[in-house]
Amino acid sequence: MDTNDPKVMRKIRNLSVQIDRNLCIGAGTCIAFAPKAWALDNEAKAIILDTAAEESDDSLINAAKGCPVAAISIIDETGKKLV
């Protein structure tokens, strides 16, 4: 996984948001919580959208918490893993 790829890792305000595509099963829960942040690509794996910053921090965190396989990580500006 290329962690420099903005589709899998992105800085959104004070949060670092990352998707582990190896864990992702394409359940789509992230999309239900934050549709401007997530989509499924042609492999049915989640990607981070360019419009992700339009979602609130709470929506991003809830999307990560809702992932059934914990494929989404969110880290705050201090390095603390929130999800």
Unreliable segments of 5+ consecutive residues = none
Count every beta strand, where a strand is a DSSP E run of 2 or more residues.
5
Order of helices and strands: EEHEEHE
Q: Could you state the oligomeric state of the chains shown? A: single chain
| Rg from alpha-carbon coordinates | 11 Å
Structural class designation: alpha+beta
Q: What is the second-level CATH architecture?
A: 2-Layer Sandwich
Total tally of structural domains = 1
What is the helical fraction, as a range of percent? 10-25%
CATH class annotation: Alpha Beta
End-to-end separation in angstroms reads 19 Å
> What is the tally of helical segments?
2
Looking at CATH, which topology would you report? Alpha-Beta Plaits
> What's the overall average pLDDT, rounded?
94
The largest beta-sheet arranges its strands as 1-2-5
**In one word, what is the shape?**
globular
Largest sheet: 3 strands, antiparallel
Question: Could you walk me through the main structural features you see in this protein, from its secondary elements to its overall organization?
Answer:
The two termini are 19 Å apart. Helices cover 18% and strands 23% of the residues. The protein has a single domain (9-75), classed as Alpha-Beta Plaits (2-Layer Sandwich). It has helices at residues 29-33, 57-66; strands spanning 9-12, 15-19, 38-40, 46-48, 72-75. The chain contains 2 helices and 5 strands. It is of the alpha+beta class and 83 residues long. The strands form 2 sheets. A 3-stranded antiparallel β-sheet has the order 1-2-5, with helices on one face. A two-stranded antiparallel ribbon has the order 3-4. The longest helix is centred in the last third of the chain and has 10 residues, at 57-66. It is globular and about 35 Å long. β3 (38-40) and β4 (46-48) form a beta hairpin.
